[in-house]
């Protein structure tokens, strides 16, 4: 959704002079990410009253926006972008005064020197060779920057560390994918599984970025509010001439796994 279209939406909602109810997708977005309780009955209408300035400030902080608590055009536009579905509830703890929150960790890490991985369900739309090549490229970035090493599971293996699946929207997790939420992953203490929405057009959304971002979650790295970081919650295209990992990403990974 473009900022111009969002501005028209805000104008249309504000003609009465009263504070407008948030658009339905805002309530859905905030509920999906844990900013607004999903336990309250009444669907979108029931959740509208929970979209308070304090809730909006937390959601804006996660994205590195100015925490005004106002549902302005820039905030609405960012809420409509394709992003990761990992809940940003770590923002419930405020940053210390004078300190800028950047990367965060998820509270667990892997202990093996070599992590095994397997794509147990491949995409129906992206060729297997493309998935394998992209995954190998991403893992090379991680292993060249840290002490981590990766090895593909071999036929006959019954266990591996990182399980990667391309799935439908409703795929058995409490978090359901849609046109905005495209993927999520679990930290090491919960198995490190990684799920990607298979209905994504990877001609317009970078598979490298999505796999890199979610694999970092599988390794125990949470979101960063720096827009130049791989771990920024909103997906972006990858410049092939730029490093996949920003300095912020490297600091997080090396804090967990040491420097190569």
UniProtKB/TrEMBL annotation:
List the InterPro entries hit by this protein, alphabetically. MetalloPept_cat_dom_sf, Pept_M10_metallopeptidase, Pept_M10A, Peptidase_Metallo, PGBD-like_sf
Signal peptide start-end? 1-18
Please give one Gene Ontology molecular function term for this protein: zinc ion binding
Q: Which residues form the Peptidase metallopeptidase domain?
A: 106-259
Residues binding Ca(2+) 1, per UniProt:
198
> Cofactor stoichiometry and binding?
Can bind about 5 Ca(2+) ions per subunit.
Q: Name one GO cellular component term.
A: extracellular space
Record flagged with keyword Signal: yes
Q: Which key words are in the record?
A: Calcium, Hydrolase, Metal-binding, Metalloprotease, Protease, Signal, Zinc
Q: Which Pfam families match?
A: Peptidase_M10
Which positions in this protein are listed as binding Zn(2+) 1?
171, 184, 195
Specify the domain of life of the species encoding this protein: Eukaryota
Cite the binding residues for Ca(2+) 3.
Answer: 178
What does the record list as GO biological process? collagen catabolic process; extracellular matrix organization; proteolysis
Q: Which residues bind Ca(2+) 2?
A: 191, 193
Listed cofactors: Ca(2+); Zn(2+)
Q: Where does Zn(2+) 2 bind?
A: 84, 213, 217, 223, 231
What are the catalytic residues?
214
Q: Which PANTHER family match?
A: MATRIX METALLOPROTEINASE, MATRIX METALLOPROTEINASE 16
**Family as reported in the entry's similarity comment:** Belongs to the peptidase M10A family.
The protein in question is named Peptidase metallopeptidase domain-containing protein
């Amino acid at each position: 959704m473009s900022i111009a279209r969002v501005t028209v939406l805000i104008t249309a909602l504000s003609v009465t002079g009263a504070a407008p109810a948030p658009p339905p997708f805002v309530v859905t977005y905030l509920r999906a990410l844990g900013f607004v309780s999903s336990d309250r009955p009444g669907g979108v209408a029931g959740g509208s009253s929970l979209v308070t300035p304090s809730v909006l400030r937390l959601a804006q902080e996660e994205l590195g926006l100015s925490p005004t608590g106002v549902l302005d055009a820039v905030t609405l536009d960012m809420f409509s972008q394709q992003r990761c579905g990992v809940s940003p509830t770590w923002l419930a703890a405020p940053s210390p005064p004078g300190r800028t929150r950047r990367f965060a960790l998820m509270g667990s890490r892997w202990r093996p020197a070599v992590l095994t991985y397997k794509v147990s369900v491949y995409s129906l739309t992206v060729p297997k060779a493309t998935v394998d090549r992209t995954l190998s490229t991403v893992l090379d970035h991680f292993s060249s920057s840290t002490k981590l090493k990766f090895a593909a599971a071999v036929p006959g293996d019954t266990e591996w560390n990182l399980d990667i699946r391309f799935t439908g929207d409703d795929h058995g997790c409490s978090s359901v994918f849609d046109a905005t939420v495209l993927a999520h992953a679990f930290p090491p203490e919960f198995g490190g599984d990684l799920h990607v929405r298979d209905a994504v057009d990877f001609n317009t959304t970078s598979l490298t970025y999505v796999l890199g971002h979610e694999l970092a979650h599988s390794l125990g790295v949470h979101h960063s509010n720096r827009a130049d970081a791989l771990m920024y919650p909103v997906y972006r295209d990858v410049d092939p001439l730029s490093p996949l990992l920003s300095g912020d990403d490297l600091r997080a990974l090396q804090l967990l796994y040491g420097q190569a």
